[in-house]
Write a structure and sequence with these properties.
The protein is of the alpha+beta class. It contains three helices and four strands; from the N terminus they run E-H-E-H-E-E-H.
């Protein structure tokens, strides 16, 4: 199962839309999605890094990130490339 980080925050309508796009690939690519709310107090570092960029998806350990806007095809390509 492939792991994916999803950076978001509360009341972010673009984040909700992006999460829906990510979920569209689940039938084709098995994903373990970790949702990270950057607005929580213990996520100050993530807020500094992603606050102006969310929603963002990332592959843990690879450094690969994909910023919004993205399509289902973009997500598939992102997940299937090294």
């Amino acid at each position: 199962m492939q792991q994916l980080l999803f950076y978001t925050k509360l009341n972010c309508h673009l984040c909700e839309k992006a999460y829906g796009v990510v979920l569209e690939v689940v039938p084709d690519i098995r994903l373990d999605i970790e949702v990270i709310d950057i607005s929580l107090p213990h996520q100050a570092e993530a807020m500094a890094r992603y606050g102006q960029r969310i929603p963002v998806i990332a592959k843990p350990g690879s450094g690969a990130e994909l910023d919004w806007p993205f399509t289902t095809a973009d997500v598939r390509q992102f997940l299937t490339t090294a």
